[in-house]
Design a protein that fits this description.
alpha+beta
Length: 351
């Protein structure tokens, strides 16, 4: 079943306006920084938060449409949810936690418990039926939450930061287990995450949210190869500069000029530059460099055998250099230096 999401909702100062769809068997990761509106979107799909405008539907079944006063209660939606902190009932056993969703939908106790036992076996937790959440590891608790969500036979499975509650040591193994269990679910799947590793490992497509709106939608390879926001560029370690392109030169709003070796067309565009391609100099570089800008060092962040140098100016950049270069150039906050980039190291694409 296809999930169609077209919603507008106000959450305090944040206006969330999002539109995307998810095809059967597809897992879409909603990726973005904290406060972007990711969990709000998930809550709207689940029915925990009514939308102000738009429509949420699964195939021909409308779940929420304010224009027709249609609103399907959460317990009547074909939607299963795995919450960030799993929200298991501490006083209930694993079996009773999984059976809870079925009981809430009208199943009798015996039927719900039998189905719950089957789901615990499917997620590798046979023998843990009587254990309460406090007696389970983080990975086991997540599998109980997943079994509870899948036991109701949903058309749509929602996962809210499914690995965030785990420590770094357990995350890799649990991520692999989660991928295996998700592969067995043929419905539509939506996962909220701020971790690109989770998106890379689990998702078929990513929808990137910033400030309540979709800024990019595509496969992770498509999104990271041509980032369209500073957030995505930071994720993949690129400098992203926006401006107006004319005759192969991009002019920024601050008056900086970036020359690319090959750039087709004119108009609004982005250029992306790898930090490793940025060279730093005490004085203006000699020779025929077509890209050389006076900049000010705002911060130097050391990472083992490399240093990230943040630079402000008409063209703002991050350069990646060696600690030896930091010492040799005397790079520290407030220092004025020159940055240069070869035109052949610049990628240009339309906005």
């Amino acid at each position: 079943m296809t999930l169609g999401v077209d919603l507008a909702v106000q959450r305090g100062p944040l206006a969330v306006r999002v539109r995307f769809s998810v095809e059967p068997g597809e897992l879409v990761a909603v990726l973005g920084p904290n406060g972007a509106g990711k969990s709000t979107v998930l809550r709207c799909i689940a029915g925990l938060l009514p939308i102000d405008a738009g429509r949420i539907e699964v195939d021909a079944t409308v779940l929420d449409d304010p224009s027709t006063r249609t609103f399907v209660a959460p317990e009547r939606r074909p939607v299963g949810v795995v919450f960030q902190d799993y929200l298991l009932f501490a006083h209930l056993s694993a079996l009773e936690n999984v059976a809870f969703g079925l009981r809430a939908r009208g199943a009798d106790k015996a039927t719900a418990r039998e189905a719950a036992a089957g789901w615990l076996e499917r997620v590798g937790l046979a023998g843990h039926e009587r254990h309460r959440p406090g007696e389970l590891s983080g990975g086991q608790a997540q599998r109980v939450a997943l079994a509870r969500a899948l036991a109701i036979d949903p058309a749509v499975l929602l996962l809210d930061e499914p690995l965030a509650a785990l420590d770094a040591g357990a995350r890799g193994a649990v991520r692999r287990d989660l991928a295996r269990h998700l592969d067995s679910f043929t419905g539509t799947r939506v996962m909220v995450t701020h971790d690109p590793v989770d998106a890379y490992a689990l998702a078929d497509r990513v929808v990137v949210l910033e400030h309540g709106v979709v800024v990019q939608d595509g496969t992770l390879a498509e999104v990271t190869s041509q980032p369209r926001s500073g957030y995505v560029a930071d994720l993949v370690g690129l400098n992203l500069i926006a401006g107006q392109l004319q005759a192969g030169t991009l002019t920024t709003d601050q008056g900086g000029a970036v020359v690319a070796a090959s750039a087709a067309g004119d108009g609004p565009a982005f250029v992306s530059i790898r930090p490793q391609a940025v060279a730093l100099h005490r004085g203006r570089p000699e020779g025929s460099a077509r890209n050389a800008w006076p900049v000010t060092v705002s911060d130097v962040d050391h990472h083992h055998d490399r240093a990230h140098v943040r630079l402000t100016g008409a063209v703002a950049l991050v350069a990646e250099v060696t600690p030896a270069a930091v010492a040799e150039l005397g790079l520290r906050a407030g220092e004025r230096v020159w940055a240069s980039v070869k035109a052949t190291d610049i990628e240009v694409y339309a906005r």
